[in-house]
Amino acid sequence: MATFLYKLGRFAFRRRHFVALIWVALLTLAGVGAASAPAAGSSSFSIPGTEAQKAFDLLEQRFPGMSADGATARVVFKAPSGEKMTDADNKATVEKTVKELSDGSEVVSAADPFKANAVSKDGTVAYASVKYKVSGMELEDASKDALEAAAQDARDAGLTVEIGGDALTAVPETGATEVIGIAIAAVVLVITFGSLIAAGLPLLTALIGVGIGVSTITALANALDLGSTTSTLAMMIGLAVGIDYALFIVSRYRAELAEGREREDAAGRAVGTAGSAVVFAGLTVVIALVGLSVVNIPMLTKMGIAAAGTVAIAVLIALTMIPALLGYAGRKVQPAGKKSKLLGGGRAAKKAASGAAAKPNMGTRWASFVVRRPVAILLLGVVGLGAAALPATSLELGLPDDGSQPTSTTQRRAYDLLSEGFGPGFNGPLMVVVDAESSDSPKAAVTKVTDEIKGLKDVVTVTPATYNKAGDTATITVIPDSKPSSVTTEDLVHGIRDAGTEIKADTDAKVLVTGSTAMNIDFSQKLNDALLPYLALVVGLAFLLLIVVFRSILVPLKAALGFLLSVMAALGAVVAVFQWGWLAGLLGVEETGPIMSMMPIFMVGVVFGLAMDYEVFLVTRMREAHVHGETPSQAIVTGFKHGARVVTAAAVIMIAVFSGFIGSSESMIKMIGFGLAIAVFFDAFVVRMAIVPAVLALLGKKAWWLPKWLDRALPNVDVEGEGLRALDGSKDTDPDEDRELVRA
User: Fold this and answer.
1) pTM, whole model, 2 decimals?
2) How far apart are CA 507 and CA 482, in angstroms?
């Protein structure tokens, strides 16, 4: 592999106009596709195989049109203090508002609360349900404006009016902090390379890669039913890995220049060595993201595949466009150790001329310290991460609803008003579907189901059954006594399902529970059930891949165990902030509550892929030194001497990029941004920088042990660039090399 990538790097350096033209053309093509593509609607949400989804599918068959995905709005009214909604003036205001709401071209219906029995028992709160023809993301601004205008007219008449539901759905905003994250990355690159030109190359290529990836997702969003969160996730991961991969290749290029190589040869060797690590690091990320498809939740599968595609583009750009841009930059990119005069290069040159001995860099000093005290460092790192992971023992999972919105939003205030007037369970009604097609007496079966549900705990209201035209299927709405995200409501769902099993045995009628609350419960359960199989699949595949890379059993095993430590510590930090409320104000978390259901499995996938990046980049340098004859302890120090500065910079950049998404208005994006940022911090600076060298120091030569039969069976991918040693001193290239690479 190293030899092929070496030739690819030289080809891209020499034929830079051709390579740059291809990437610019791809960016233009993706941009045109995104601009001309129809606007994407809201992505559909389905959970194949769950009871809630089966009930939803049954409703579409037996009640045609009932489960249309049109947007809904609940306009909630509250009477002034001392008054009731049934007072003449208040009633007239509500009826006028409902009439205004009915006039929209996209409105299907607007229910009068006084006719729909939608007034609270104390008469102070009422709500009007509005149904639209299209989804919230497709709803025209005119319809949203009319909804808000009608609510404002009722406010002007003296009522308190708030709007809930998904009719006011808006595309999430990431805010200025995303730009700040990129700015921090730029500063870190300048400090690392000591050159504005060298620092600009990783940023430029990462932005081009993300531009192609996100534009492609946008162009295909409507056809493939991709939600807005998909492109945000692809942008988040694509930026982070795109900068990091380019950073490693540019850094290795400068190191090759420092050894006196010609620029074209240095570019080829940088791609042949660091590029090999980039390929395998990218593969681990892609495996982790594509592996999300085993959960069998379409939304999660699409997010993972889209993000994996963006990572693949980042790898290809790093291998081809970086050497091409290095060819354009020429002598403006200095060898390692040299800085531009603007950033202190003149002082460094004077110091070198004076004959002063260069002291060991920080990476060398730190590695030497760890090698001398491996047990203490190992214990400190493991205990520290264990302490950070403790809050994860209190992890509560759920999906965000209007109750988790900031109190400043009208959706949250509508949620609170409904809870006040009708009880907390009113915001999460359960829909019970009774399939009595096989029953001898469908109505008797439905009556039995209704009676059984009324006898369960935590049930406030059970509405009369609504039958389909054939009379063989009925729906019953159940209002719990507790809020949708509570454990009590979850127990009620399981209680209804348990009762349904007994009823089926007696009447042959199937009882299914669905609705948004039941969907959320089933979603969380499916993710929990898939976590261990997913973990085994991803870690297993990556473990095999790392055995090939490092030609060792213990090094990949240590990498996997270290990852588990960092991801558990990161989950603990997420619980502490988003569930317990620690530092919530500092991070802009207005409401605490259950952790998003997909967070654990998502963090396992993404963090594992990113964690293996640092493992590959850092340990391949050690492996390279060991292969070339150094003792295990010397190889650790050498690996840190050449890799610690770059890995540190890469980690800081990734943390900065992920932290930029904490400013998002979308709670899911905010939580993912924080979780990934803190996970990279733990993994890069505690696991890879402390625990890894400590373990390798304790293992010594055993770290690189591999059974002889396995060594013979494994392919030699030559990540260390051993095959390039035969090319030392060669400045010429095979005349057919360019044609071969173009065909490849």
Assistant:
1) 0.78
2) 30
